[in-house]
Amino acid sequence: KSASLCFPQRILEPSTVFREHSAMADPGLYRPPPAVRGMTVLDREAFTQMIHVPALRVPTTVLNKVVKSLKKIALQRPGIKRVVDDGQPVGGSGQHRLLLLDPHCVASAESFGHEETAALTAFGVSPELHRYELQLTYENLKSEEVLRAVLPEGQDVTSGFSRVGHIAHMNLRDHQLPYKSLIGQVIMDKNPGVTCVVNKTNTIDSTYRNFQMEVLAGESNMVAKVRENGVLYEFDFSRVYWNPRLSTEHERVVSLLRCGDIVLDVFAGVGPFAIPAARRGCVVLANDLNPEAHRWLQHNARLNKVDAAITTFNLDGREFLRGPARERLPGLMRGPGAVHVVMNLPALALDFLDTFRGLLGPEPDQGLSCEATMPQVHCYGFSKEDDPQQDMVQRAEASLGVSLQGRCSVHMVRNVAPNKEMMCVNFRMPREVLYTISSSKEDEEKKIPTAEVFLQLSEEACSVEEGEVGVCYVNEGKSPLKASCIARWQASPAV
Ligand SMILES: C[S@@+](CC[C@H](N)C(=O)[O-])C[C@H]1O[C@@H](n2cnc3c(N)ncnc32)[C@H](O)[C@@H]1O
Fold it and tell me: Any transmembrane segments, and where (predicted)?
């Protein structure tokens, strides 16, 4: 493909100082011809140009050693060989080759560093530089260079995309939209294996968390095959949620599971927690409201031969918890495996935690509800607060109606946008949440009062610092409160 190899290149005069030659010293040396600016239909030929690069004439006997010693300053362009014929007439001695150098690193013989100079001396190579005329084509340019040359000067040329199987998924800005077909074509040309480029056309606010998208270039086949952490998934990317940036998080949670554990995946999608959990030997109940996601979840369970270990549901998360989960939980909690509840719907999952309040009815006999049998919850949320950890805990507590102080941990998953974090709060479901009216005094004390109360804050409580637990007296009972709650109470008109 590289025209530079079949074009008759010429060596011009030897020169020791290349700074004099403007093309050689120009930092935008690989900048395509100005005529391509504003192009909306890709014309690959229009990118062809001749440039000059410095070259060393190296005896073939030491060529490999010299190339190795000078690899930091040798020319590196896609599709261009850095060692070429020395341009001597056919039938010449053939005892020399030219090593092409990066003109951004080498402007004159003085540009060589200590190591390079020592190598040239050791191998008996003259530091004299030759000018080599090279044909640079569209194939030799990087996508960023092509787009920078085409799009209006001074505007952002982000050519980043997420890769989902054969699909490159872009999120173009408004000023890039007039060039969208060209951008799609360039991304496809420059990324082997990408046969379809799509642009997101809405923000992700749909219930099923999938994007609306427009095909910019290539085929319109949206059924992707993806391997994540060694597991194969297939799904229609236009109709379900899939985020390649969650692979580390999926792996982290799955690594906490043991063979024989039970997993309740409330917002399962196409199965990136459920399938690897089943492959690890867990018994899985996986649910998703989106019928398409549910269909691909079943498909992926069969594809990975774990369908016997996964029971799937196509329900709203609350219905799933109040129905199939509630029915099975008492039996599962009595079994030998730990029960895990995964809730990855970061925009809403914390609100769903209130479904667990009293879910299993009256507390069973002592022993059947000991702390160790309680489900481990991994619940996701977005936070824009200065202290996302604290924010996550407070919202989980508000939804559950109990304090999680000292009994939860928060994991930062990823930065989603400037000032927006995706977080995961992990905790063992408190007994007093799952079972109704536990009358023990200890449990009463753990509850955060939700009713409006009138109270006189003691001096002691008022001096509590942010993040500390204080004690204040409510209706003559003792109730441990987080300082942040106290602060909220102080601010309320009732107080
Ligand atoms: C952020 S995705 C996570 C999918 C998958 N667990 C993952 O990690 O990639 C959230 C999923 O929740 C589903 N969903 C949205 N609202 C739901 C609800 N009310 N009940 C159950 N599932 C819901 C969506 O269809 C989507 O597949």
Answer: none
Distance 317 CA to ligand 1 centre (A): 9
Joined together, the tokens standing for residue 4 give 């530079």
Query: 74: which DSSP letter?
Result: B
d(CA 344, CA 252): 13
pLDDT value, residue 449: 46
268 Cα–ligand 1 center, Å: 6
The pLDDT value given to residue 13: 46
- For residue 323, the SS3 value is helix
CATH number for the segment(s) 245-440: 3.40.50.150
Report the pLDDT value the prediction gives residue 157, as an integer from 0 to 100: 80
DSSP 465: P
SS3 for 466? coil
Low-confidence ranges of the chain (pLDDT < 50): 1-10, 12-27, 438, 441, 445, 448-495
Q: Based on C-alpha coordinates, what's the Rg of the chain?
A: 32
**What single-letter DSSP state applies at residue 436?**
B
247-281 burial code (b ≥16 CB/10 A, e <16): eebbeebbeebeeebbbbbbbbbbbbbbbbbbbbe
Helix (H, G, I), strand (E, B) or coil at 472: strand
**pTM: predicted TM-score of the whole model, two decimal places:** 0.76
Q: Which atom of ligand 1 is nearest to the CA of 346?
A: 1
Fold of 152-221: GMP Synthetase; Chain A, domain 3 (3.30.300)
Instruction: List binding-site positions for S-adenosyl-L-methionine.
Output: 250, 288-289, 316-317, 344
Measured by CA distance, the residue closest to atom 17 of ligand 1 is 289
Euclidean distance between CA atoms 244 and 257, whole angstroms: 21
Q: How far is the CA of 288 from the centre of ligand 1 (A)?
A: 6
ipTM confidence: 0.99
Report yes or no: 179 and 40 within 8 Å, Cβ to Cβ. Answer: yes
pLDDT at 473: 41
Residues with CB under 6 A from ligand 1: 207-209, 241, 243, 246, 267-269, 272-273, 287-290, 293, 316-317, 344-345
Q: What is the DSSP letter of 31?
A: P
Task: Tell me the pairing of strands 96-100 and 49-59.
Answer: antiparallel
Ligand 1 mean position to 208 CA, how many Å? 6
Known binding residues are 250, 288-289, 316-317, 344
Residue ranges of the domains in the chain?
3-141, 152-221, 245-440, 449-491
